[in-house]
Amino acid sequence: MLFSFWFVCVNRNQSHCFFEQSGKLKALENCVAGSLGLRAGSYGSLPNIKNVIAGGGRLLHSKSFGSVRKNPIMMLSGSREKERSFPSIWYRYLGRRKISMLLLVALAVLVFVLGSFVVNKESNSPNVDQRIGTMSMAHYINATRTEASRILGRRNRQKGGDGNTFQASVSKGANHPCANFTFPPPPPPHLRRIGPRPCPVCYLPVDQAIASMPSSPSESPVLHNLTYVHDENPIKTEPHGGSDFGGYPSLKQRNDSFDIKESMVVHCGFVKGSKPGHQTGFDFDESDLAELQQFHEIIVASAIFGNYDLVQQPRNISEEAKRNVPFYMFIDEETEAYMKNRSMLDSSKRVGLWRIIVIHNVPYSDARRNGKVPKLLLHRIFPNIRYSIWIDGKLQLVVDPYQILERFLWRQNANFAISRHYRRFDVFVEAEANKAAGKYDNSSIDAQVDFYRTEGLTPYSEAKLPIISDVPEGCVLIKEHIPITNLFTCLWFNEVDRFTSRDQLSFGIVRDKIMAKVDWHINMFLDCERRNFVIQAYHRDLLEHMPPPVAVIQRPPALPNIITRGRNQGKKIPRHGRDRRSGSRRHHKASAGNRESNFF
């Protein structure tokens, strides 16, 4: 059997060669082998073919044909002399492409090593201010450039640092297991996610965290004996706010409470009654009063008022914490009725790990302001505890309490810890944000901020360093119960009772007035670290009004719209003669009818 085969080859000089080979199958195989460019050496030449190929009235030797069809990679090298400059043994056993890949890999490894060296050199620099360096990390994690980060970056560079370090602050020395923990470098700009996100936190194992608990209370600077005002008939004597529950402290009493002395008597809620929770407003059941007087090393507390949230069960809690750390959830009667109707609460008063405490005779009509009572006055409700962790009702705890206390109090030699706001650090900016979001009526916010301005509050600036923020993210409080921290939360509550319930606005002024009198500080850690151990859920009303998830239905592809007649569907029956012509007419009429129906 004879074959005829045409071949066209085009080289980079745009030259063409044509040949025709006629013969049997063997001749065709030889020709196809040449057209496929089978390699026999390191330069991509074709195998030597002894036969001579005829074409165009002249003879083309197989070597000349192979030289026409050179490998494109070889064409890029420029000349064979350049290739001979490399050791031939590498090309013989590895090939040109593998050599190129090895060179690229070597270059990538070199860049990676140099980059790692630079990052490690910056992180381990002895001139880095670790506390200020974490502020720079917040800028990368939260993808928000603020004036504070620029101020702190300048101050850090003046001290000899680079303003862009990721070392985590550790106060227990180089022997601490987390002493060398560093934040990972920020992702490239195009991979950063907008909005606040959690960041890594170095926690000790639970047994080591328990072993780190101080054996004795921290020393309270200056103040050693703190008692509270009791008044069965409080009278409002000034036009400012206040309540019967708070006792209406005067401005003079307010100012005197910031004059720190060894022994002090201050307003701190629960001014009526023989003890907090008994005929004081914000009252407890008798069975609960006895339990609240018991001694505990650590408690975790939260609250839901106005049926505003759903109970969030803690996760990742150790067996030691389940045995030794009680979890208390304060609710009002409205929330209690909702939980009983949903069969969530029974006579045991337990929902998962939470021990439910029902509050009667709430002092305020505002559910958020009622929630500030257990949040800021836990030391009055629990007079015999050492440490407390407060989380808002919308939060779910996902890290063991011992690990949280070790990380944010014991390791830092601190007795009060709160996260700073992830974006705002200035009270005046925070006030405008609250007004824009409708958090409270604008006139009350303006009155509070104007009052603080007359007391000397100024916008945040570099002059406030080492204070790094005036605005907290106040949904988590970590506290050791000693006189100075109890005084701080008392005076903070008095501001919430006198002015608006937005405790972010009053935090800074109370802290600054106390720090001006005594050597005391607050650990304001990164908000991304807070988001590491609590997860924020939606409020109940938002969850109930959310539409259910839409199920995605995978529909099969539509079948083609084919009109068939008779029993032989899909089989075309030929027509002949008159039948074919009449069928064509019927087909045209049917098509016209379909077009009209589609149009309408």
From TrEMBL:
Highest rank taxon of the organism: Eukaryota
Keyword Membrane found: yes
One Pfam family linked to the record: TOD1_MUCI70
Composition skew (Basic residues), residue ranges: 568-590
Domain (TOD1/MUCI70 glycosyltransferase-like): residue spans on this chain: 226-539
Protein name, entry field: TOD1/MUCI70 glycosyltransferase-like domain-containing protein
Record carries keyword Hydrolase: no
PANTHER family: ALKALINE CERAMIDASE-RELATED, TRNA (MET) CYTIDINE ACETYLTRANSFERASE-RELATED
Keyword line: Membrane, Transmembrane, Transmembrane helix
InterPro entries: TOD1_MUCI70, TOD1_MUCI70_glycTrfase_dom
TM region(s), chain numbering: 99-119
Chain intervals for the UniProt region annotation (Disordered): 561-600
